[in-house]
Amino acid sequence: MNGVKTISVALFLFSILGSAQEAQHPNVFLITLDGVRWQDVFTGMDTALFNSSYTEHKEELAQQFVGSTNEESREKIMPFFWNTIAQHGQLYGNRNKGSKVDLTNTMLFSYPGYNEILTGRADDAHIDSNDKNYNTNITVLELANSQEKYTGKVAAFASWDVFPFIINDKRSGVPVNAGYMNAKGALSEREQFLNEMQRQAPVIWESVRLDVFTHHFAKEYVKKNHPKLVYIAYGETDDFAHGGLFDMYMKALHNTDALIADLWQYVQQDDFYKDNTYFIITTDHGRGEGVREHAKWTDHGKEVQGAEHTWLAILGPKVKPVGETDNVQLFTDQIVPTISKLLHLKWDTKRITAKPLLLE
Fold first, then answer.
1. With a threshold of 0.90, does the pTM exceed it?
2. For position 5, what pLDDT does the model report?
3. DSSP letter, residue 97
4. In the chain, what are the domain boundaries?
5. Which InterPro entries match (predicted)?
6. Distance of CA 197 to the CA centre of its chain
7. 316-349, pLDDT tens digit by residue?
8. Is beta strand 309-310 parallel, antiparallel or unpaired with respect to 323-324?
9. Which stretches of the chain drop beneath a pLDDT of 50?
10. Cβ–Cβ contacts within 10 Å for residue 307, how many?
11. Strand order in the sheet with 99-102
12. Which residues contact 116 (CB under 8 A, 6 or more apart)?
């Protein structure tokens, strides 16, 4: 009997020490907002688009998001970015200040953009469409999941239903909940409710569910399983933009900012994540600058001027709080080396040659 008690105590102490050791390793939430322009993040309301036929409810939009200055306007649109990240983290991409973030792929639409974000390099030779083809490239999610200390501690949630193919869930073993997929396994009451509700809400696009469902599926999974690396891909902004609905695009951007704020607030209240978690936030591509031919705001792709221009936001315990940056050039392919460095992942430096970002 004493031997059993000794073993039990030893196992208990091992579990406590193991949990403490695991908690010392940082956590990373990689978050993307589909097709959001740097202008809308950094310069506030675009008056040309506001005054164009793309905006139906001008008075309502003005009341919500127009300020006396560009700085006041952008804060109204994205209060979490400008009241939290700008104060405690880093923001890149305001080209008016010489802060530039660019894609390295030349396709300038979603699948190639997400491949670059998640794998650390462009692959124009093989990824030239948004078709549901399984990605032959290894994402940072798969890389982490293949290494013992992170196996089973990686997950992805997305509004767009192509993400199981981008992440290659079959090969990688990374659980991906995307499009109108239901949560699976031993479900909480809220997950059961989300499964029931997601198709009872308006289905605006069959391939992209509303971001609020993606967000809460992710949040419930995080609460239950405490993964170390989480990817969340919000999608509404790009689809509203393609539809030429500038007011809905701006509202979606505002709402997504609030969802990210909600997630950050939860993370800072959870002992597993508090003061040991990084948020890396970006977009898969830019868009046109207005209403001119080859520069239409509704469009992106290699023929659209400015679609290669993106942005990046970073928040975390060792991130130097410099706020909005100027006179710097970054590229999207630097995200994977940065995550790999934070999580101490072993990655192929011959295949991924971009340098990690200097956060401290």
1. yes
2. 41
3. G
4. 23-343
5. Alkaline_phosphatase_core_sf, Metalloenzyme
6. 24
7. 999 999 999 999 999 999 999 999 999 999 888 8
8. unpaired
9. 1-2, 4-21
10. 24
11. 309-310, 99-102, 328-331
12. 103, 104, 105, 122, 123, 332, 333
